[in-house]
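Standup notes
- DV: blocked on the single-chain target, sequence here:
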Amino acid sequence: MQTINREHPEYIARKTTWRRYKDLYLGGDQLRARAGEYLLRRHKEPGEVYQERLNRVFYQNYIGSIVDWYAATVMHRAPALMLEGTDAGAKDFYSKLANDCDLRGTSLSEFFRKRFVEALVCGSSYLVVDFPRSAGPALTRAEEDAAGTSRAYLVEYGADEVINWNHDPNGGLDWAVIRTSCLQQSKVTDAHWEQETRWIYYDKENFEVYRKAGEGKPIEKIDEGRHALASLGRVPLFQMRVSEGLWLMNRAALLQLEHFNKSNALGWALTMGLFAMPVIYSEREWNQIVGESYYIQLGPEDKFGWTEPEGKVYQIAADNLVQMKDEIYRVCYLNNQAMGGASSSANQSALGKQLDFATTAEVLGAYGTTVRESMKQVLWAMAAARQDEVSIDVAGMDEFDIDDFSTELDDAQKLLNLRIQSPTLTKQIYKRLANQYLANARQEVKSQVAEEIEGAE
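- DV (later): unblocked, structure below
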């Protein structure tokens, strides 16, 4: 395929931004290694001084903590799969999928938590539904299950790995190209490590895999065939996307970069202030060497002193850093977690604090809906491809206070006390309560409890 390495205009426009946002999220050695891209050099600053500042660079990573807090809070209770139907084999499959969705031991909730973090950092994230390759066609579903070829699984991809795509007139994907790169050891006699790049092309029925191992080598096709969702006539690539207003890294990145530069400037100034410079007041010609191991000789009218900053600009800079930190939290809808204005926070009315928490709760609810709907779309497509005779729903990610189960229980009790003549409503209430209470239990336990509730008279 001649166009396998072409890049979509949106990808070209954003790939540099994605790399910068990932550096700001991770911080640590990854940001330090590219600090020259983020630490601004002063006008006519000597190269030796700038290099020393780079060597001493540090990073106070507020946005990384904010992203992780949102991800942990949205999914502090594992989502529950609500399975309706009589297909016991399908229910057993989804129980296994909930505990290991990628054939590497990753639970479904942890897999989607990572995809959610990627979406908060880059605006979107991707996954692919796939099936194990089969040696030949299976005649029955039982043969597929016995061979393991019906064991659907998920593969994760970052926003910077989906390099090209096209949409059909209905807005769905017509085709997409994924590019990955990693170090692999060559299989020749003098085995060495080389950079291997792979391209995976998907259309609505087929896939093609291309490979390039090492510099100067040609791109070769290594695999092709029908993909997991070919029977549905759709590309097996799914996107989790947050709206522009809920793209946290995009909202806070410029503030975090400004805080990074000013905090390093203040740190450098404070360090330089510790090494005070001597000042000699004299009308005589000065040619003495001054240092820790030397002494100076002054005349009767000569004076000696040290330069020392008054500190006013230091206080202004420190106050400005606190304001920027609070602004990072504010634009991420976390006014209640900004610690800069302790006195103002203490004087804030109870109503004001409730409004701050209410805003955060609304944002958490929107994030929970995003993750929940993404899971549904993936599971529905998987069930259709497997031809499972079950209906699937996803519950959870709509309550974010770990101590709120008593409130949920009280509301359920009040609803049951109305004695509404609907056995279906009663069973759904019991299922919801059971799933919330057993949020972190294994999926097979949740499914068994749901079946027992459904079968109860």
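- Follow-up: The longest strand covers residues 173-185.
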